[in-house]
Amino acid sequence: MKLKLSHIVVLMLCLFTAGVQADKTDRLIKKANRYFAPLPQTMPGSENDTAERVELGRELYFDPRLSINDSQSCATCHPLGDGRGGMDSLPTSPGARGEFGDRNTPTVLNAGWQSSQFWDGRAKDLADQARQPILNPIEMGMPDEASVVNKLGAIPSYADAFSMAFPEDASPLSYDNLAGAIAAFERTLRSESRFDDFMLGNKTALTDQEQSGLALFIRHNCVRCHDGPMIGGTLLEKLGVHAEFHNTEDPGRFRVTGLEADRMVFKVASLRNVAITGPWFHDGSGKELSEVVKIMARIQLDTELKAQDANAVTAFLHALTGKDFEPTATTSQ
Ligand code: HEC
Ligand code: HEC
After folding, report:
1. How far apart, in Å, are the Cα atoms of 141 and each of 43, 70, 96?
2. Other Cβ atoms within 10 Å of 89 Cβ, number
3. Which residues of the chain have pLDDT under 70?
4. How many angstroms separate the alpha carbon of residue 247 from the centre of ligand 1?
């Protein structure tokens, strides 16, 4: 067959466009690596996590006997498995006695890579965090550390499990070790996404729309706060830089420090798995992710995002969902 000149021109144009597209994707991957990083393999502090310690932590995490009336475990509010993203999908959660807390439940997936825990960053790490819900009167409601230790001490299987998990300790069954074991289990909750593949050089890991969303996320400066391997999770920042957040009832970090400068300061949320951990914001008031994106642009960056751009950014946020949660991961490959 003879090629007509017009065919050759079209062919060359196609090759040229494909080339430009590939270059553009290469540049985007490079840029993404400047602001973010692929998820590391291990969480800080996991060096001493033995299999026994992780297993004990897993038992404790799912054990409702850690609550005052045996009704509630960590997993009640932070469910795992069966496609559930480490939080209960409620605006705020009921505790062991049915009373509601006033903050949205964050996911435990990847949590150990954040530089502090809780919406206001008041716990320094996972172990420090794990000590608190058990004794919180509107969460698991146990009266004090000694009651928890005594309750577990009366369960024969725990005496063995604690001794195996903490063989060097004179009295292995302690509140410190309980928190340490739960933290060890949580350090195994690693959730990697297609965005990690993209950053590692797989150009087709993100769709065109997700790539333009990523480019917009960088160009509009969301990365000023949401950066690093967790796309957030490391800074405490004011919520409502350019315009007030729609709910100022919870003053955020002000509750912890009492400093006026900390009013409405919250931890910059990690955006890993954000698409499956709604409703959003510390009060669970964000019902639509694209709306949350628009609010963020408006109040944090003084930018009105067009619907199309908000949708692209939202598509990018969906690409941060752990591969285990994506329907294609179970049906193909
Ligand atoms: C009644 C529901 C409930 C129970 C039970 C519960 N949590 Fe939470 N969890 C929450 C809420 C709400 C927050 C946020 C509170 C805040 O920021 O003030 C939270 C925060 C956390 C965080 C911080 C995540 C982040 O991104 O800052 C971790 C980790 C966590 N919980 C783990 C646990 C563990 C481990 C247990 C069991 C010992 C547990 N939770 C029990 C509701 C619950
Ligand atoms: C000045 C810092 C800052 C900038 C800039 C910023 N954010 Fe945020 N972002 C935060 C803070 C702080 C929170 C936690 C909000 C809360 O406590 O309710 C947050 C929360 C979020 C959430 C909700 C997370 C959840 O789990 O509920 C999304 C989604 C989000 N940001 C997206 C964006 C996008 C998209 C941009 C750019 C248009 C952006 N952010 C710009 C500080 C910032």
Report:
1. 29, 10, 7
2. 15
3. 1-3, 328-333
4. 21
State residue 329's pLDDT score. Answer: 46
* pLDDT attached to residue 9: 75
Cα–chain-centroid distance for residue 85? 9
State which amino acid sits at residue 312: A
Ligand 2 center to 235 CA (angstroms): 11
Torsion of CA 202, 204, 209, 210, to 10 degrees: -30
Q: How many CB atoms neighbour CB 320 within 10 A?
A: 23
Q: d(Cα 186, Cα 40) in Å, to the nearest integer?
A: 15
Per the CB < 8 A criterion, the answer to whether 99 and 71 are in contact is no
Burial class (CB in 10 A: 0-12, 13-18, 19+), 119: buried
Is the C-beta atom of 212 inside 6 A of ligand 1? no
Confidence at residue 209, expressed as pLDDT on a 0 to 100 scale = 98
